[in-house]
Design goal:
This protein is an all-alpha fold. It is built from 16 helices and no strands.
């Protein structure tokens, strides 16, 4: 195939990818504009569209002002993808100001290099390579985030989405890395590597688009496109009464007995696999029960619910006032004080020490009242 044919295929794939990415972003902002996950997902899609356009063969050089805007959007894609993966698959994630500062640094560096404010090749080329390495590193870090929290995720739809993210991001990252080592060989700027990059981006956008449109052909007829399916903001539980799942009550009672009576949450290294084997049920059924029946999106959050309740009782017990907080944390199943403090504050808005102090003060204030009530009616 000639260079003109490669160029036509390359541009066609890039146009399709950019169009799908902008569709995904617009639907996400329409349906879930108040969600951090949706906003980050829309930003990733916009960044992908910008990357498809500004990295196209024969894109105008030197850079015009509008081209620098596209370059800035594309250069920050690695940061945005990493943040989206964190927000979508980590229920405890909180967006910080330094996240935005990191995006500004990477995008701003690329704009300064392309705009001629930083000399090329030195130090411009070094900084450009550093931005590429940082972006690829953040993408791989997002993949690691997907892997690390895979087993603990109780939301089945989100678990399936992780496969798409893991495979898609890994393949696309590999293609982009190879493209850096094989620059275009033809005068038109088109190459097999460039077409492969465009094809990989297009496949990713097609997968997201399929997830976006798959619910249209339901027996009840067309319904609003579910942006949550593609942007990761999967809610726990259905909104309509008829969509509420049927809870397996016998299994729920067995699970509650195991957690409340046997205190299985205290065991070190307890996993969803171990728990499902003990209950003699498939893992997917136990995940469904914990997610849809008890409302937990994460296995650790499910365990921490019981651990925190026991810790609260121990911290409020006057007879355990001298027991160190660390001892209580370890006794309830936590492996260190840091995770315990974070989980406790997330559940109560108080640190364990603050909770104990308030509980002891409340006990002290109630003691005279109880004594006075007990003395009513007694002879002098």
């Amino acid at each position: 195939m000639g260079s003109s044919g490669l160029l036509s295929i390359d541009l066609g794939l890039r146009g399709a990818a950019a169009g799908l990415a902008l569709l995904i972003a617009s639907v996400g902002l329409r349906d879930l504009r108040d969600s951090t996950v949706a906003r980050l997902g829309a930003a990733v899609a916009i960044s992908a569209a910008a990357s498809a356009i500004c990295s196209a063969p024969n894109f105008p050089r030197p850079w015009q002002w509008w081209g620098l805007i596209l370059l800035a959007l594309a250069a920050g894609g690695g940061v945005l993808f990493w943040l989206w993966a964190r927000a979508a698959f980590d229920d405890d994630f909180v967006l910080r100001r330094w996240h935005g500062a990191l995006w500004v640094v990477l995008a701003g560096t690329e704009v300064l290099i392309a705009g001629g404010a930083i000399d090329w090749p030195m130090p411009g080329q070094v900084l450009d390579r550093a931005v590429q390495v940082a972006s690829l590193g953040l993408t791989l870090l997002a993949v690691v985030q997907v892997l690390v929290t895979w087993r603990a995720d109780m939301v089945e739809g989100r678990r399936r989405q992780r496969l798409v993210i893991l495979i898609g991001a890994s393949v696309y990252t590999a293609i982009v890395t190879l493209l850096n080592f094989f620059p275009p060989l033809s005068p038109s700027g088109a190459s097999i590597a460039s077409v492969a990059k465009a094809f990989g981006l297009c496949v990713l956008m097609v997968l997201y688009g399929w997830m976006l449109l798959r619910a249209v052909g339901t027996p009840e007829g067309p319904r609003r496109l579910p942006a949550a399916d593609i942007l990761g903001d999967i809610s726990a539980g259905a909104s309509d009464a008829e969509d509420k799942p049927v809870v397996d009550q016998p299994l729920l009672r067995r699970l509650q007995h195991l957690m409340i009576v046997d205190r299985a949450y205290r065991r070190e290294g307890l996993t969803i696999g171990v728990l499902s084997a003990e209950l003699d049920v498939p893992e997917y059924r136990l995940r469904q029960l914990i997610n849809e029946g008890l409302g937990h999106r994460n296995f650790n959050a499910f365990l921490n619910r019981y651990r925190i309740e026991e810790a609260k009782a121990a911290l409020a017990d006057p007879e355990q006032m001298e027991v160190p907080v660390l001892t209580i944390a370890m006794d309830t199943g936590f492996q260190s004080i840091g995770p315990f403090n974070r989980a406790f504050k997330a559940a109560t808005d108080l640190t364990p020490t603050e909770f104990r102090r308030l509980a002891m003060a409340k006990n002290a204030s109630m003691a005279p009242k109880a004594h006075a009530i007990s003395g009513i009616g007694k002879p002098d």
